[in-house]
Amino acid sequence: MSFAIIIPAQEKNRYNELGDLAPFGNTTLLEWKIAQCKEFAELSQIYISSDSDIIKDIAQKEEVNFIKRKTGLSYKDMVFASIEGVNTNDIILVNTTSPFMKSKIYKDMYTKYQNEKLNSLISVEKKKEYFFYNKDKLNFSDNFVSREKVEPVYIDTNGCYIIKKDLALDRQNILSSNPSFFEVDSFAATEIKDVKDYKLAREMITIFFQDDLNV
Question: pLDDT in tens for each of the 215 residues of the chain?
């Protein structure tokens, strides 16, 4: 399988002063994500992208690749600089801030991507709720219906993106013009976006392991 997994990592961010090195279970968010990827891919297929020497040391300890990126790059520039730094047909971009995206989800996503010969696949969560934009109804009419009957809306979870390398670089986008969806449940869709999310995710670790053991 010709693919590269890219994991962006920072020492500091908006949800924790330690960034992706924040404690999670008995490890860090970064090492947690590396462990999930190791269950799916070979060590040589995993790339950590960072400007941090501390994170570089972790990548070496974990025996995965390290892409040294320039300090101060925007997220977009970092992503495409990282994609240019690997020599594979398929790019799988994952984020430490989606800690409950299991290795099985990555495997199933890549299998779908290959079997259906897709150009782009993203993890999404389906929502059957009443959605508005600028007070306009998006997925329902004036006629009252239960939420179960409204048209679903799909939300990008930011957990996993799979795309052809050339397509990503040509479009300067990790999405194709018409990306395919891989639906995940609300637990896997959990994303750490602020301090509150981080604290809640730490409380959810027990549920994660119970789910793994089918308890």
Answer: 589 999 999 998 777 788 999 999 999 999 999 999 999 999 999 999 999 999 999 999 999 999 998 888 888 899 999 999 899 999 999 999 999 999 999 999 999 999 999 999 999 999 988 888 888 888 888 777 888 888 899 999 999 999 999 999 999 999 888 899 999 999 999 999 998 999 999 999 988 887 765 54
Is 14 within a domain? yes
At 28, which CATH number? 3.90.550.10
Amino acid at 100: F
Are 157 and 189 in contact by the 8 Å Cβ rule? The answer is yes
- Rounded Cα gap, residues 76 and 72, in angstroms: 11
Quick check: is 42 in a domain? yes
Query: Are 160 and 108 in contact, with CB atoms under 8 Å apart?
Result: no
Q: Which of 57, 63, 55 is nearest to 30 (CA)?
A: 55
* Structural domain count, the chain: 1
With respect to residue 90, please indicate whether it lies within any of the assigned structural domains.
yes
Q: In what order do the strands lie in the sheet with 65-68?
A: 65-68, 46-50, 3-8, 90-94, 153-164, 120-127, 180-183
Which domain covers residue 81, as residue numbers? 3-124+154-212
